[in-house]
Write a structure and sequence with these properties.
- The complex is a heterodimer of chains A (69) and B (251).
- By secondary structure, chain A is an all-alpha fold.
- Chain A is 83% helix and 0% strand.
- Chain A has one domain.
- In chain A, α2 runs antiparallel to α3.
- Chain A is flat and about 45 Å long.
- In chain B, α3 runs antiparallel to α7.
- The longest helix of chain B has 32 residues.
- The C terminus of chain B is likely disordered.
- The chains are: A mainly alpha (69), B mainly alpha (251).
Chain lengths: 69, 251
Amino acid sequence: MIRLFFNELVGMFVDDGNLALLAVILIALIAAAVKVLGLPPLTGGVLLLAGCLAILLESVRRAARDKAR
Amino acid sequence: MHGLTPIFSTVTASFLASFVEVVEAFTIVLAVGVTRSWRPALTGAALALILLAALVLVFGPLLALVPITVLQFAVGVLLILFGMRWLRKAILRSVGVIPLHDEEKAFSKETEELRRQAGDRRADYLAAVASFKAVLLEGVEVVFIVIAVGAAHGQTLYAGLGALAAFVLVMLIGLAVHRPLARVPENSLKFVVGLMLTSFGVFWTGEGLGAEWPGADLALLAILAVIAAASFAMVRWLRGTYPSPAEGAAR
């Protein structure tokens, strides 16, 4: 039961592992660019929005392509 | 952030997301109640609700100890992951890549399982466990949504009211129809919730990084519009590029 609970907890955030990993990498890169390289935070926010959409597009395109094969 | 825009979007996101989760939990509890008896169904559900309440009471106050920018960033990141997962699934269901969630089918599957266990001397216990599991697992998502959409701007009360309204509404409809709520347009709801949670996630992660969004809270609506437009464009593009024989309506 406890294992099921934790699996569910992880599953809440990770369905397509690739999507979750890319999103985390994107956020980490943008956070580093803002905090370390001095990228304006608003630019970081806009890049985050664009990056999330690109990652989502890649994920749904891959799933649809795999299904079509 | 105490204008009507964030309050309305917080309540709406919490209500719609909780509605979907409560409908799924209700299907299993109903299956247990109808197939076995209402005692294990309600006992399991009540125990799960008590456990969820305990989790909120234990971990909820800890959030107050976290600095607001750290909290916004952490909640924003989790909302991006959670929201994009829902959005991805809703898009793929809309174009028929994965099948739509079917409450009647979930109900039949659970009923069949319970009938198979009917001869077991632990049948009541197993039925209560099924009810407990359903409410706990769906409830964890509701708790996360309420805390996530509410905590970053001190609107947990509004988020909680949205979830409570969803719970009450599903119970009222469920008691009235006494069958799985199969006609709920679950995928459309998931689509909207995925859009809203991803928008909240981007907005708060940006704020956590120090971004001052133009238009303040209204930027949330602009982000929502951009994500919605892009998502609908993805649906159209996928339908044209990878036509599926099982293509379903976004119900």
